[in-house]
Amino acid sequence: MYFDKAEVLDRSELEKLQAERLRKTIEQAANSPYYRESFKKNNIDSSIIKTVDDIKRLPFTTKDDLRSQYPYGLLTKPLDEFVRLHASSGTTGTPTAVFYTQKDLDTWADLMARSMYAVGVRRSDVLQNMSGYGLFTGGLGIHYGSERLGCLTVPAGAGNTKRQIKLIRDFNVTALHIIPSFALYFAGKVREEGYDPAEMPWKIALIGAEPHTEHTRQKIEELLHIKAYNSYGLSEMNGPGVAFECTEQKGMHVWEDSYIAEVIDPETGEHVAEGEIGELVMTTLTREGMPIIRYRTRDLTRFVPGKCKCGRTSRRIDRIVGRADDMLIIKGVNIYPMQIEKIVMAMPEVGQNYVIELFREGFIDQIKVKVEIKDQFFVEDMRVLQGLQKRIAAKLRDEILVTPRVELVQRNSIPKSEGKAQRVIDLREVEN
Ligand code: ADP
Ligand code: ZN
Question: Which stretches make up the AMP-dependent synthetase/ligase domain (predicted)?
Answer without folding.
Answer: 81-282
